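Let us walk through a complete example step by step. Step one is to write down the protein sequence. Step two is to encode the small molecule, magnesium ion, as a SMILES string so that its atoms and bonds are unambiguous. Step three, shown after the inputs, is the structure prediction itself.
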Amino acid sequence: MKVLICGKGGSGKSTITALLAKSMATRGYNVLVMDSDESNFGLHKQLGLGMPEDFTNYLGGKEILGEKLIQAYQSGDNISIFENKWKISDIPEAYTVEKGNIKMIAIGKIHDFGEGCACPMGALARNLLKNIETTTEDIMLVDTEAGIEHFGRGVEEGCDLILMVLDPSYESMRLSEKISKLVEKAGKPLYFILNRVDNIEIQLTMEAVDETHTLASVPSNLEVFRAGFEGDELNVKLPEIESVADFLASGIYL
Ligand SMILES: Nc1ncnc2c1ncn2[C@@H]1O[C@H](COP(=O)(O)OP(=O)(O)O)[C@@H](O)[C@H]1O
Ligand SMILES: [Mg+2]
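Step three: the predicted structure of the complex.
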């Protein structure tokens, strides 16, 4: 199964992705975490991994990838980057980091000022997500950049399910309306995880989302905060994340 995690900046997307990856790995799944956020550098640390090499380099780097995409676009071809479908084990090892049954790949990062726009990386993320075939023993978790740009690039096309992380803020509430509309158009199941909420905030935040599609309300947790603050690996087991993992493992949304 392939799951896309979205939400506003700072809502907890990467944290929830890392916690879910760990929980699913403990259950024996082969976990592939795909980092498609081109501007944040923390996810590998939350997983206790080194930083993987940008996957854009596999295709010759961002510039060459950009040129290929422009050529394909001009000739009216469908922008398809891969010749064959890949299983998780087909991803070239040079572009992954792994520990136990968690593997991570990063599409690419904006490393320097003036590197240009991230569109080629969006196209690559979309292609890679579509190109990977998972089995019932696999789970692919895709961490995205803030907001909705990845929807504009069609990154969600290849996923089976979308999880939106909401913190109790005006921006998250508004974003949930936009994302609900976009996801409906894309015809994908959408579920919500409220993050960093106390009891009163749960009630307020729940008014903005479909309660029946809300999988968990994760409280603010000091250990999670500390690990995030220090850039340490997340070794916290939260019951709320376990119930999301139960849901994913059940496959009932498919
Ligand atoms: N439930 C939580 N309890 C405490 N701190 C949290 C929680 N969720 C996220 N954080 C902290 O909030 C910050 C932003 O989270 P992050 O996952 O990086 O957000 P995003 O990926 O959406 O930008 C991080 O420092 C993280 O450690
Ligand atoms: Mg993040």
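Step four is interpretation. The first helix runs from residue 13 to 26.
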